[in-house]
Amino acid sequence: MALVHFDYKVTQVYIRVVYFLMSIYKIEVKGKIDEKTRAVFFNHVTVTDGPAVWMIKPFRCIIASGVKKVPFFGKVVQFTRCIFVERSKTEGQSQLIMDAMQDHNMDYIALAPEGKTTQGNYMLAFRTGGFLTNEQVQPIVLRYHSLSFGCTGFHWSVGFRQFLWRTFSCPYTKLTINILPPLNSEEYLKASAQERAKMAQLSMANALGLKAIDQTSKEYFNAKAKKE
Questions:
Q1: Is 41 exposed, middle or buried (0-12, 13-18, 19+ CB in 10 A)?
Q2: Does 73 reside within a domain?
Q3: How far apart are CA 84 and CA 69, in angstroms?
C-alpha cells in the first residue's frame, strides 16, 4: 500500500508539472468525491480532463480501445488498469462497466459519458453504460478559464496541430473542478438508465450553463460531416 501511495504522489506531481508547462497555473477544486461513489462522470473537451480528475483521487478509466493505437500514450495506458471498450461492438460493453462498478475491491471508475470531446459549447447526450446499476454515481464538471488572445483554448476536437497552437497561445489558465452532489435520490434510483443519463446530463449542463442536446456523439458528428 505504501508503494501504491508513493506512486500516486509521484504521478500527481508529474501531472501538475505538465499542466504548469501548458500554462494551467491554478487548479481549484470545489466539493468532494463521496466514499460510496462507484463512478464519476465528467464533461470532455480535451485530453487533460481525465488526468485532472485522477489528481483528486485515483480511478479506473473507461476508455475506447482505439486509444491503444495512439503513439506512446497508447502503450502507457495498456500498462494501467484501464477498462477498454470496443465502440464498434453493440453487445457486452456495458457489462464491462457494470462489473467494474460493482467490484468494491477495486477503485471507482471514471468516464466521459458524452463519448467524444467537444468544444464545450453544448452537452451531448450521454451513453447509458454507467447508469445500468444502482451503484452511486457522481457528476464532475471542469471549466478552463484562459487569459488568452487569438485562436486559443485546450479543445482537443480541433485536431492535434490546432490543439498545440491554442495551448501555447494561452499565457495563463485556471482550471476549476466542481464536484457535484451524488445522484442517489429515490427519483433517480427508480428511473430507467436512459432517464438517469438525462438527469446526469442536465445536472452537468446546468452547472456549466450549457445547452443539453438530444444527439449522441455519433449522431452529432455524422450530421456535422454531412454538412461539411
A1: buried
A2: yes
A3: 12
pLDDT at 152: 52
Complete DSSP assignment for 128-153: SGGGSSSS-EEEEEEEEEEE--SS--
- Surface-to-core class of residue 115, CB atoms within 10 Å of its CB (0-12 exposed, 13-18 middle, 19+ buried): buried
Per residue in 46-78, pLDDT (tens digit) is: 888 888 998 898 888 877 777 777 665 666 666
Q: Which of 102, 62, 113, 116 is nearest to 85 (CA)?
A: 62
Residue 3 reports pLDDT greater than 70: no
**By the 8 A CB rule, do 116 and 47 touch?**
no
pLDDT tens digit sequence for 14-48: 888 888 888 888 999 999 999 999 999 999 888 88
Report the domain count for the chain: 1
Whether 118 and 45 have beta carbons less than 8 Å apart is answered as yes
Within a domain: 228? no
DSSP, collapsed to helix, strand or coil, labels residue 61 as strand
Q: Which domain holds residue 142?
A: 20-223
Rounded to an integer, what distance in angstroms lies between the CA atom of residue 219 and that of residue 7?
A: 40
Q: Which is nearest to 140 in space by CA: 19, 35, 52?
A: 52
Cβ partners under 8 Å of residue 47, min gap 6: 156
